[in-house]
């Protein structure tokens, strides 16, 4: 080492965090000493929906959207969170009332993000550890999807809501359908979402399909 240069030793805590990040059996060290959340972004999303705390989820989503698109947020955080909820439904841990509460919370998140474009922004500084962790889960570059102009569409697609998104089963599927309808709107295709009850035998003949080009 050249004379006059003093090299500071690397703090032991940082060494432990790095070990925990790269050695699977030592992962608990990163949880203990690192600044990353102990739960994954999708787990935190599910936790907030279950606790009926959509505002906190929106705050984290807005941090995520400083560096990536809305569709990527839904794909990498929100939908995996709903899959965790579905797993709990399968094992009998969520009753219908809880499922409805989760759907209502998700709808609030979607409504609060209605003014966000589905385009990847110029990278901004991310000061939130949870949002940074969520961004690290994104694999590869996410291309921006085109936005179509209504005038360029075929006549049967130029109505206000030519796409009808129908939920497959219950409230969680309806929450996903609402996300899809919002993204279609942002890309120039008017869409609306309906719950699974809309296609039940007792209701399907009353379903409004005027102007629908695709279900």
Any key phrases for this structure?
47% helix, 215 residues, mainly alpha, 3 domains, 8 helices
Account of the protein in words:
With 215 residues, this protein is mainly α. The chain has 3 domains: 10-36, no CATH class; 40-145, no CATH class; 147-215, no CATH class. 47% of the residues lie in helices and 4% in strands. The protein has 8 helices and 2 strands, in the order αααααααβαβ. The chain has helices spanning 12-22, 27-33, 41-50, 54-64, 70-90, 96-112, 129-136, 171-186; strands at residues 163-166, 191-194. A two-stranded parallel sheet has the order 1-2. Helix 8 links the parallel strand 1 (163-166) and strand 2 (191-194). Helix 4 packs across helix 7 (129-136), helix 5 (70-90) packs antiparallel against helix 8 (171-186) and helix 6 packs parallel to helix 8. The longest helix is centred in the middle third of the chain and has 21 residues, at 70-90.
């Amino acid at each position: 080492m050249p004379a006059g240069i003093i090299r500071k030793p690397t703090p032991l805590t940082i060494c432990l965090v790095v070990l925990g990040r790269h050695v699977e059996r030592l992962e608990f060290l990163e949880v203990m000493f690192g600044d990353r959340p102990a739960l994954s972004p999708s787990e935190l999303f599910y936790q907030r929906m279950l606790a009926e705390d959509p505002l906190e989820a929106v705050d984290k989503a807005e941090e995520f959207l400083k560096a990536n698109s809305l569709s990527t947020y839904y794909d990498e955080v929100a939908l995996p969170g709903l899959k965790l909820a579905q797993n709990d439904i399968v094992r009998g841990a969520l009753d219908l009332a809880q499922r409805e509460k989760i759907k209502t919370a998700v709808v609030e998140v979607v409504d609060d993000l209605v003014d966000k474009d589905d385009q990847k922004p110029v990278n901004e500084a991310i000061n939130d550890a949870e949002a940074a962790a969520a961004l690290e889960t994104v694999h590869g570059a996410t291309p921006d999807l085109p936005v179509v102009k209504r005038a360029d569409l075929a006549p049967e697609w130029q109505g206000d809501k030519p796409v009808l998104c129908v939920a497959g089963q219950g409230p969680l599927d309806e929450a996903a359908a609402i996300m899809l309808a919002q993204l279609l709107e942002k890309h120039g295709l008017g869409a609306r979402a309906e719950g699974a009850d809309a296609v039940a035998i007792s209701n399907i003949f009353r379903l409004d399909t005027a102007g629908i080009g695709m279900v």
